[in-house]
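Input sequence (95 aa), recorded before submission:
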Amino acid sequence: MSVLKKPLVTEKISEQNEQGKYGFIVDKKANKLQIREAVEKMYGVTVDRVWTMNYQGKAKTRYTKSGVISGKSPNYKKAIVQVAEGDIIDFYSNV
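Predicted structure, token format:
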């Protein structure tokens, strides 16, 4: 099981990066200890705090030529990780 799925790069999270907070989409079954270990191992930083949030998928409806198509975006779990003072995570280093 891969704990970290992808980093979150949004305006709100990018503002928090200056305070040492970074966002990730994580596995739904991962707990805070597993998230902390995965971030420390992958990015080589020290994690101070972890906040997690579960998001419910939203219903989506499209009106097309062949009729109404309805579906749902997937559920996901988001984690905000605060790293120790002086540590940074650079998501763009491999680009």
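Checked by second reader. The chain has one domain: 4-83.
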